[in-house]
Specification:
Blueprint lengths: L21 H5 L13 H6 L4 H14 L3 H7 L5 H12 L20 H4 L3 E4 L7 E4 L6 H10 L7 E3 L2 H11 L1 H15 L11 H20 L1 H35 L16 E6 L7 H9 L8 E8 L3 H10 L5 E6 L7 H9 L6 E6 L3 E2 L3 H11 L4 E5 L2 E3 L6 H24 L10 E4 H6 L10 H11 L3 E4 L4 E3 L5 H22 L3 H45 L8 H26 L4 H7 L6 H21 L16 H4 L5 H19 L13
Parallel strand pairs: 2-3, 4-5, 4-7, 5-6, 9-12, 10-13
Antiparallel strand pairs: 1-2, 7-11, 8-13, 9-11
Helix pairs in contact: 3-4, 10-11, 11-16, 11-20, 11-21, 16-21, 18-19, 18-20, 19-20, 19-23, 20-21, 20-23
Length: 682
């Protein structure tokens, strides 16, 4: 197994035949073949062997699908061959392409993207035509009906489902892109970042930006002293929160049980996977290989690769590698704002799944991640709207920037977020590996096209609407930026989006307080605004420390008073505490291999915080000049070594180790605790 990748942990399609299907096999003929439905003759005539047909029949019963859907999903049957044969059987014309200009548009036409494909065409000087993709089990009934009414043939045609969907995507593209770009702003303008600041916020910011310099000029000592107190208290609060995460967060993550098994009688739903890809042609082999390893029946997968329509290279590469029927390349019209959330909203219009997960083009999700998410959704309440998988950096040894990035991610996804989930507090989501109940996602208005950290914003909005977010155990592997310009561009976009999120959700503070409470307000500030504020204020904290040192060196230390001396002590505690907690919070949940890849980060952490400050101030200037600019982070295929990615053992081995540790914990602590070894595979 290659480092930086997961092993394939199995496939449902190879599982034992459920007892419900045994009866179908009991009444066998002399050859031992189970009885098949009437439409089986149709598939046999197409050259499908009886063993493959029997397997598809059993899978269709198990998954609640059809024989042709299973055969097509497994690549045994070409969909165009099947539907062309179906058209010939029914005596109807077969359409291998459909002119989008002939599609009869209605307000509900996009429902055909998710439902059974059925399309009405309006042809100039010709009767209207209904295009369908009939199922084999209805073929005999449909042929008899057509035979009894020969006039029906003039208004019917057959096409493959993807041909019908392609025509709908193109025909309604203009109306669809307009709708998704304006939907949140039109339905709930208070939640949209389209307006950067509200009226009172603009007035308050303007007054503050004028009054602060005037106060510093008029009363320099008093103004600086009060700023010093405020800054120190906020830093102390943030340190306290991170200390709590260090004490309890990793423990909460370790208590996540092994991947729970879904009830045997619970049918699996269709799962939609959205992958945003922009200028990612070179990433196509890696992401498709990762998606192919997902442990979910192919006939119940709806994978959409979402590309900008003018990014022809990426579209061509994805279509070349994503050839299976459960893949679909969605072309998003190049219309502003050109952001990832707008593209995801556009693709969501055609989602067929009850659950939706987001991946980036560089992601390598654990093969069983969908299984874990589905089982946890079934076990949880309906208010559980989203589950966040941890993101693990697999190239920590590539550069010191990547090492510190890995440290930061480990603290965020394996300590901070598990603690927030356990306490039921607002949780800013990561930009990938978010698993949603589709109903909750749509009820919340989906993603804000104008927010450049749509993930954090959506997590807060879900919480305000009564939904809760949880965390998963099985991780997604990612590669961190290794160079300063790339890292700075990405981080400045994040800071800009966090500022947008804070401005949006604090437009009506009293309403926000009523919806999330005092604890929620504190958590929101510390996890979203606090990260931005600490980065912005870090140089000022350093100035206060240098000022105190200068006073001490100049011999005037005793004259400054007790308050200044206490603040100096708090400053030293703040800055040392910030650095130490940054390192400890990340290192605690890491595996030994990950720690070895990160190395000893103590020397570089102060420089990393200065880098954070530079990116934060860049974001502050950009939010007023170009708030909706989406700075794309370039990616390269993973070349992680074993030292970088850690020992990626198979999940069965990891769970065996965890079970052993759990047994020991039960003997020593008297209660059941599931311990997670934080290999890069977790």
């Amino acid at each position: 197994m290659c480092a930086g990748e997961y092993s394939n942990s199995g496939n449902l399609d190879n599982s034992a035949t459920p007892p419900a299907f045994t009866a179908d096999l009991s009444n066998q003929d002399a050859s031992g073949t189970p009885p098949l439905p009437d439409e089986a003759r149709f598939f046999l005539a197409l050259g499908i062997g009886k063993p493959a047909l029997v397997a598809a029949f059993l899978k269709a019963r198990q998954h609640g699908t059809t024989i042709e859907r299973e055969l097509i999903a497994e690549g045994v049957l070409d969909p165009h061959i099947f539907y062309e044969a179906m058209a010939e059987f029914l005596g109807l014309p077969y359409l291998d392409t459909i002119n989008p200009a002939n599609v009869f548009l209605t307000e509900t036409i996009d429902t055909q993207l998710a439902g059974g494909p059925l399309l009405r065409l309006s042809r100039p000087s010709l009767p209207a035509m209904l295009v369908m993709a009939p199922e084999a089990r209805h073929a005999l009934t449909l042929r008899d009906r057509i035979s009894s009414s020969p006039d029906m043939r003039t208004g019917l045609a057959v096409a493959a489902p993807q041909t019908i969907r392609d025509a709908i995507w193109q025909a309604n593209s203009h109306a669809r892109i307009e709708a998704v770009s304006c939907r949140l702003f039109g339905d709930a303008p208070a939640f949209s970042a389209r307006v950067v600041v509200s009226g009172w916020q603009g007035y308050a910011l303007g007054a503050f930006s004028v009054s602060l310099p005037l106060a510093v000029l008029a009363w320099p000592e008093l103004a600086l002293f009060l700023m010093h107190i405020g800054l120190s208290m906020i830093y102390l609060l943030a340190i306290g929160f991170r200390a709590a995460a260090l004490r309890f967060g990793a423990k909460e993550a370790s208590r996540l049980p092994a991947v729970p098994a879904a009830p045997q009688d619970a049918p699996l739903p269709v799962y939609t996977v959205l992958v945003a890809a922009y200028h990612e042609a070179h990433m196509a082999p890696q992401i498709i290989a990762a998606l192919d390893r997902l442990d979910w029946p192919k006939s119940l997968l709806d994978i959409k690769i979402v590309c900008e329509a003018d990014d022809r290279a990426t579209i061509a590469a994805m279509r070349e590698h994503a050839r299976s029927a459960h893949y679909e390349v969605v072309e998003v019209p190049p219309q502003g704002p050109r952001t990832k959330p707008k593209a995801l909203d556009y693709a969501l219009c055609g989602a067929r799944g009850d659950y939706v997960v987001i991946f980036d083009a560089e992601d390598r999700p654990h093969p069983r991640q969908l299984r874990e998410a589905h089982a946890r959704f079934l076990a949880g309440p309906q208010t559980l709207g989203c589950l966040q998988a941890p993101l693990t950096i697999s190239n920590a040894g590539a550069s010191r920037i990547a090492a510190l990035f890995a440290l930061e991610y480990a603290g965020q996804f394996r300590s901070l977020l598990p603690l927030l989930a356990r306490l039921g507090l607002p949780m800013p989501l990561g930009g990938t590996s978010n698993h949603f109940r589709r109903a909750a996602l749509e009820a919340a208005g989906a993603w804000d096209p104008f927010n450049v950290t749509e993930d954090a914003d959506l997590g807060i909005r879900l919480h305000r609407m009564g939904y809760r977010c949880g965390v998963l155990r099985l991780a997604t592997l990612e590669d961190a930026p290794t160079e300063w310009p790339v890292w700075r561009a990405q981080r400045s976009r994040w800071f800009k989006g966090w500022l947008q999120t804070m401005l949006v959700h604090f437009r009506a503070p009293l309403r926000l307080y009523a919806e999330i409470g005092a604890a929620g307000l504190i958590a929101l500030f510390l996890t979203t605004g606090g990260m931005l504020f600490s980065a912005l204020a870090h140089p000022l904290l350093a100035v206060f420390i240098l000022r105190s040192i200068w006073l001490f060196a100049s011999g005037t230390w005793l004259a400054v008073g007790l308050a200044e001396q206490v603040l100096f002590g708090i400053d030293i505690a703040n800055i040392i505490g910030s650095y130490c907690l940054f390192a400890l919070l990340g290192r605690k949940p890491m595996s030994a291999e990950e720690r070895a890849a990160v190395g000893r980060p103590w020397v570089e952490i102060p420089a990393y915080w200065i880098m954070l400050s530079v990116a934060a101030w860049k974001a502050m200037f950009e939010v007023s000049s170009n708030p909706f600019l989406w700075r794309k982070t370039p990616h390269t295929p993973s070349v992680a070594s074993s030292k970088e990615a850690g020992n990626l053992r198979q999940q069965e081995e990891i769970e065996a180790k965890n079970n052993g540790r759990t047994d020991r914990a039960q003997h020593t602590n008297g209660h059941s605790v599931h311990i997670v070894t934080h290999d890069a595979a977790l």
